[in-house]
Amino acid sequence: MNLGLKGKVALIAAASRGLGRAVAQELAAEGASLVLCARGTVALNETREQIVRDTDASVLAVTADVSVVSDVARVVDIALDKLGCIDILVNNAGGPPTGKFESISREQWEAAARLTLYSAIELTRRVLPGMKERRWGRILNVTSIAVKQPVENLILSNSLRAAVTGFARTLANEVAADGITVNNILPGYTKTERVEELARMMAEKEGISPAEFTARWEREIPMRRLGEPREFAALAAFLVSERASYITGTSVQVDGGWIRSLL
Prior knowledge:
The protein is an alpha/beta fold. It has helices spanning 18-29, 41-55, 69-83, 106-134, 155-175, 193-206, 210-220, 229-239; strands at residues 9-13, 33-38, 59-63, 88-91, 137-142, 180-187, 251-254.
């Protein structure tokens, strides 16, 4: 299937590893030019070099923290200066800390809001005018299965990713007539550094091995396994493609059947 991404420019946040990296790799393979940002310069440059080797795509890497407004502005300004436009925005960020309500401080709530919610708002604010001018755009927010079925011990993620969903669903209606789609993609338990870190933390609290804790997750998933980043990236590539031009305002999970709701 030709997704119609050749010649498009995609900005992908938190792209140095995990799901962001997988999405970047997939879009590059489909012919898109990339602007990648992440906080870690070394990992980001390694990702850029690997994608260029694998796909021969045009890839620009900019070290930035998307929870900092000035960094967001700098990334977008560099992208526009070097590549001329941004057709596709993939809002993504590392997960906020784990914990229950009484263990989370006000400062942690504020930091998590900047990372998870405000980063998506600021990146969108910066790229939307160009998309409206060209009457074509794709905005995809990486949220979590937690927005449909809260995950224990993740009150920050459960709350703030739900806020991103509300923002995206409302924005989708506002910009649909401009040829811009806004969707959310919900990763389930996937083999990423973030999930491995969560497994280690939770296992340590219970005095068991990370493998035992991961096996508990796998028993909850009808497919009885964790997802692969490439499986998540395949749907992401479709949702930002020309082929998905009539899909907007949706939240689609990639979770092996973990969510039990009908819709």
